[in-house]
């Protein structure tokens, strides 16, 4: 079970990744292809129906050849 604080942190991480995807005009389908996740999985993570995993973050960083700072920077 996750604490309220843990849930908020996960939610913020998901928001950063979704913002990164949309800012770069990556559809869920393209994002799925590049990260080797199914589109449905990405949709569930973005809507809070599945928990974000570290593996998800790592695959995003590797697929897009970006730093973790770039992924989570505020603009």
Task: Give an account of the 3D structure.
The chain has five helices and no strands. By secondary structure, it is mostly helical. It is 68% helix and 0% strand. The radius of gyration is 12 Å and the shape is globular. Helix 2 (28-35) crosses helix 3. The chain has one domain (4-71): 434 Repressor (Amino-terminal Domain), CATH 1.10.260.40. The model has no long low-confidence stretch (mean pLDDT 89).
Question: Topology, pairings included?
Answer:
Elements: H1 4-23, H2 28-35, H3 39-46, H4 54-64, H5 68-71
Helix pairs in contact: 2-3
Which features would summarize this protein structure in a list?
75 residues; 434 Repressor (Amino-terminal Domain); 5 helices
How many beta strands in the DSSP annotation? 0
Largest sheet: none
* CATH-defined topology: 434 Repressor (Amino-terminal Domain)
Q: Look at the structure and give the CATH class.
A: Mainly Alpha
Low-confidence region ranges: none
Alpha carbon gap, first and last residue: 32 Å
Percent helix range: 55-70%
- Which structural category do the helix and sheet elements fall into? mainly alpha
Compute the number of helices. Answer: 5
| Envelope shape | globular
Number of domains: 1
CATH level 4 superfamily: lambda repressor-like DNA-binding domains
Quaternary structure state of the chains depicted: single chain
Write the element-wise H/E pattern from the N-terminal end onward.
HHHHH
What is the annotated CATH architecture? Orthogonal Bundle
Mean pLDDT over the full residue set: 89
- Tell me the Rg in angstroms: 12 Å
Strand content: under 5%
């Amino acid at each position: 079970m996750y604490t309220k604080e843990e849930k908020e942190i996960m939610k913020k991480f998901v928001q950063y990744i979704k913002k990164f995807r949309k800012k770069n005009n990556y559809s869920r389908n393209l994002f799925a292809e590049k990260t080797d996740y199914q589109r449905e999985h990405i949709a569930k993570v973005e809507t809070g129906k599945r928990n974000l995993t570290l593996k998800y973050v790592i695959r995003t960083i590797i697929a897009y050849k970006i730093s973790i700072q770039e992924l989570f920077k505020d603009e």
